Amino acid sequence: MATINYIPERIQTKSVMKRVIDYCSQEKKTVDPETEIRYLSGINCDPNDAFNDFNNTKDIFKKSLGTQFYHYDQSFDPDENVTPEQVHEIAREFAENAWPGHEVLVATHLDAKHPHTHFVINSVSFETGLKLRQSPNTLKELRNLSDEICKNHGLSVLLPYEETKLKRRSAREYRASKRWKSWKDMLRSTICSAMSRARTKEDFIRAMELYGYQVTWTPDRKYITYTCPSGKKCRDNRLGKEMFLKENMEMELKIRQENIPFPLPVTGWEKLRGQLMKMKLNEWESLGIASELAGFVASFVPYSDEEDLEEIEREIEARYDLDNLGAAIGGSIGMLLLIQEISKARHEILKEYSKLTEEEEPDVDDDEDEGQGFYMQM
Fold first, then answer.
1. 234 by DSSP, 3-state: which?
2. Which residues share a beta bridge with 74?
3. DSSP state, residue 3
4. Which of 77, 224, 290, 331 is the residue whose CA sits 20 to 30 A from 341?
5. What angle do CA 182, 185, 189 make, to 5 degrees?
6. Is residue 236 domain-shared with residue 298, that is, in the same domain?
7. What is the pLDDT of residue 14?
8. SS3 4
9. Which one of 131, 152, 173 terminates a domain?
10. How many beta carbons lie within 10 A of that of residue 201, not counting itself?
11. Which residues of the chain have pLDDT under 70?
């Protein structure tokens, strides 16, 4: 697949235009070291003298002021099986159809991991003398043209571009997602995993924290903000799908907790919810016991030895059907939460008991004795 990117050049002078042309035309970037073939072409101009050709056209039509040139590139996915010849051939075909009547320098660079081609377009048409105009839809139209050409050459294409209020993924993110290296893809996957077990916002946040993610989800904020293990931050509206938006997440969890009459609001989580609803009631209810377990284990006063701590586990096993829970969750995050809560509780109980046995017990008046027992706050 190939992506088209607009490279804005805010300073528009002849010297800047020459510098861009010289950069794109470098031999070390355009020559294939194996075949020594140079992939530099000119559409309606001499590729070795593009700067003078551009200026001559401007002088003829007396349009040497204002915008001098436009700069785009066409980048291929590193995993796309294309040769330098194919990349350059597709680039030439694209330039001829994208900017008819204009002089275009076509320079394919082979010095990066992903092959890509730069296009430098003269702002003045050599046929009409009119200046090239761009609209808000220009980039979308050029991308559609690129996809059509790539498809005709038997190459993969990007998904159709759709209007959305969400922030669009960049070309770099899209390429990374195809190789499962995008940190946003990892975040999306983790959110789906957490939502597949959560019934409340608290369940969801706890599950995300287990994976190393921090979640800022408060009533006074418009967006949910995620902090990744790497420290990167991301708002829900930058995850590419409306199902991740705060209002849809909140509505989905509300549907799971309350008896909302039909027709149910559309949240984007319908497929996952349908799978959850197929569970048996006791299996569904068992998914929400992780937070309760902490309080249940913490309600025991400190025991004196490991044998008594084993008694706690037997109490838990008697109260909850752990085998059934494991079958319901499939050994995934719910079971992990359960195990972590038991482990954390045991560790805290031993630590607090150790502190109590090392210190002298303070004198306490009878009327202050109530509430002095040990309770962990999880």
1. strand
2. 4, 117
3. E
4. 224
5. 145
6. no
7. 94
8. strand
9. 152
10. 16
11. 158-181, 259-262, 274-378
* Count of the separate structural domains present in the chain: 3
Q: What's residue 76's pLDDT?
A: 87
Nearest 5°: the CA angle 160, 165, 167 is 75
pLDDT of residue 149: 93
Please enumerate in sequence order all residues whose Cβ is within 8 A of that of 134, keeping only pairs 6 or more positions apart, or say none: 70
In tens, the pLDDT along 249-262 reads: 999 888 877 766 66
Residue 134: other Cβ atoms inside 10 A: 12
Question: Cβ of 230: how many Cβ atoms within 10 Å?
Answer: 9
**Is there a domain that residue 26 lies in?**
yes
246 neighbors 223 (Cβ within 8 angstroms) = yes
Amino acid at site 1: M
The reply to whether 34 and 68 lie within a common domain is yes
Residues contacting 248, CB < 8 A, separation 6+: 242, 267, 268, 269
Inter-CA distances, 362 with 153, 191, 375, Å? 84, 48, 17
215 strand-pairing partners: 226
Three-state SS annotation for 243-255: HHCHHHHHHHHHH
Token match 């070309």: residue? 171
Q: Which residues are registered as beta bridge partners of 4?
A: 74
Query: In terms of domains, do 310 and 250 share one?
Result: no
Count CB neighbours of 357 within 10 A.
10
DSSP 158-179: PPPP---SSPPPPHHHHHHHHT
Q: Residue 189: what residue type?
A: S
Q: What is the pLDDT of residue 369?
A: 40
- Give the residue numbers spanning the domain of 255: 183-268
Tokens of 88: 């350059």
CA distance 54 to 71: 14
For the packed helices 270-277 and 246-257, what is the interaxial angle rounded to 10 degrees? 20
pLDDT value, residue 258: 75
Q: Tokens 């991301």 correspond to what residue?
A: 234
**Residues with Cβ < 8 Å from 174, sequence gap 6 or more?**
3, 158
Q: What is the DSSP letter of 223?
A: S
Q: What confidence score (pLDDT) does residue 361 get?
A: 43
